[in-house]
Here is the input.
Amino acid sequence: MHPASWIGWVLAVMVVALATTNPFYLSLLLLAVVLVAVLAPREGAGVVSFRALAVFGVVMFALSLGIAAINGNYGDHILFTLPGPRVPEWLGGLRLGGPVSAEGFAAAAIRGLAILCILFAYGVFNGAVSPHRVLRSTPAALFQASLVVTVGLTLLPSSVEDLRRVREMRALRGAPGGLRELPALVVPAIVGGLERSLRLAEAMEARGYGASPPLPARARLAAAASAPLLIAAAWLWFYEADWRIPALGLFGAALALLALWWRAASRVRPVTRFEQERLPAAERAGLAVAAALAVGALGLRLTGAGAMDYNPFAGLPVPGFELLPALIAVASAWPAVLLIARPAPAPAASPEARLAPERAP
Here is the structure.
């Protein structure tokens, strides 16, 4: 699949995961992401990086539950009580220990499900798409930002590969394992990552990657003015019901300023490509589906329809379930349809077949 298709899918999953707190919809979304993860191609370090992100997501889920238990929480269904010190009130209501309720565990589990969905989607993207393809597909206006993102995408696979290599070398030398030997594993990996980053920075500077003429003052002023306009528009829209029409005007002005900056940035740095990677029609339809899913999830959340919001502290009621939000969560697995329909790769010839002499006609 094209990198733009994967990016659109990840953004859609992120929007849907953050737009709802209903555990039913989040569970369906997680199952959809897992289905795409099973079918997505992963090669080399992508397998290791996805496994590391999956383990990290599970650890964050368990950590969310642990923090909910340690801090204590309010609710009508008390499960158990943890002993803890009495914290002064001037610390802002911080609690250590105390009664632990089922409502608190439910809220922590909902946060953990949203984190799992986003981390799994990012892991699929990181394993299925080469960072160099992402860099080649970005517009000229976002070249510098995409360069930083590309270097960041290579950090996790390379760090995991360094850890694996250091652990294998220590095992061959008969070094003991355990938590006490963790610094001996982590420190060489961090040092190796820093050295690799320095070498990459020096090579990129020698090839002129950072050499670009500055933007015109008008474009820089437009980019700087768009941020406060967007913040003011969001504030008026969400907190001032009577000022929503001016908020739309501020939002339109911010978009116009961003368009001015985009045009100037695209002209300052011309970009040429040896081969343009085309976006197939099926993947363009998938991007339209991803945009529709994100807009639909946000619309349901803003209008309060579809039982998108769930508050477990209101007596721990059974979450609502409606067809449209469930279809939005299930439809997030649209890359699985494209991955199933793709042609199977040709089987690689064995070494014996490659070395066998050709028969004479």
